Amino acid sequence: MTDTGTNIAKGLEGVLFTESKLTFINGAEGILMHLGIPIQEWAEKSTFEELSLALLDGELPTAEELARFDADLRANRAIPDQLVQIIRDMPKGIHPMQALRTAVSYLGLLDPQAEEITPEARRAISIRLIAQFSTVIAAINRAQEGQEIIAPRADLTHAGNYLYMLTGKEPTPEQARLFDIALVLHADHGMNASTFTAIATGSTLSDMYSCMTSAIGALKGPLHGGANEAVMDMLDEIGTLDKAEAYITKKLDNKEKIMGVGHRVYKNFDPRSRVLRDYAEHVATKEGKSDYYQILEAIEKIIVDRIGSKGIYPNVDFYSGTVYSDLGIKKEYFTPIFALARISGWCASVMEYARDNRLLRPDAVYTGAKDAHYVEIQDRK
Ligand code: ACO
Fold this sequence. Notes:
Blueprint: E1 23-26, E2 31-34, E3 37-38, H1 39-45, H2 48-57, H3 63-75, H4 81-89, H5 96-109, H6 119-144, H7 158-167, H8 173-186, H9 193-202, H10 208-220, H11 227-238, H12 244-253, H13 271-287, H14 291-307, H15 316-326, H16 334-354
Antiparallel strand pairs: 1-2, 2-3
Helix pairs in contact: 1-8, 2-16, 3-6, 4-6, 5-6, 5-10, 6-7, 6-16, 7-8, 8-13, 8-15, 8-16, 9-10, 9-16, 10-16, 11-15, 12-14, 13-15
The structure holds acetyl coenzyme *A (ACO).
């Protein structure tokens, strides 16, 4: 530790530690791009599979490359029976992120290539991880609810297969596409805490499973994943549309935070929340607007009118909970779903940093004593 310098970047805010070609964010203007392509275009024209491959390889794939990657994902969906049994035997009532952390770590024990850190090995492991995260999370969800674990199907898309493994029913094309878009929107988001954690672990030349297990631990905390769960709690508390205005107005008058609005980076609409709102509205209009959705619309209007001028707008978590809930996903699983999408960004970021690796080792200003001496234990007060 150093004793010089007072410019501490608390929370590493504004600290640049590497270069990346994956994701660009302009919070003031509400812009998010992957490989220079706006998130709106990824959501409209692409799929989670394609964005995952583009992030891993740093470029848009050809049709042939995408077909091969998609086939690899489908072929790698199944998880070993030994892990299925571990998931069945996990204590009931645990946090699903605890279960995911243990399952992914265990998955590493069963992968003979786990300890290899060449670029080729990291890429091959990333494909298996992206494919198997989905199976592991669905299996945890069902096992925790005392239901039979459902094996993956190779004839469904990545998003469609997850919903199938979760519910046992094949989703409609609209449901599968809506979930796919939610995965696209969450696949990467620059140097957030979990991505940084994955990179920090990778910078020690540790293996991919350790990187992902570290990242899951970082995402588990309520300051990172978990805000969309809080939005659902708020909606449950409000209950019905007629109570929304009074509830939000009272909170704002009392200077309390409204969940799902505001963002450290975005001081305008979070572009992901716009995309999600539009698709959620499409499905809601087709299948009838859920009460949750109507309450959110009412809250958004009040927020924009009252505190939009402070740069506080709905963030991605504002609508994602309702979308997930309408798809049959319970709120305890919102953070694992975040991981299900972000695994692509984690793997891609670890691989990108590894190309020009330097051990991450920041410093702190030492503010402790310098003139102390060891005191024998019996002489201490
Ligand atoms: N509800 C009401 N007012 C808010 C909110 C909110 N959610 N967020 C900020 N404000 C107000 C503040 O009270 C402050 O008002 P003031 O100037 O009158 O004192 C002003 O807006 C600026 O707020 P800051 O706290 O400086 O904004 P900051 O960038 O630090 O906060 C944060 C960002 C932590 C995300 C905050 O907006 C928040 O707690 N939001 C709710 C939780 C949430 O949705 N988190 C998910 C973020 S997205 C993600 O992680 C994927």
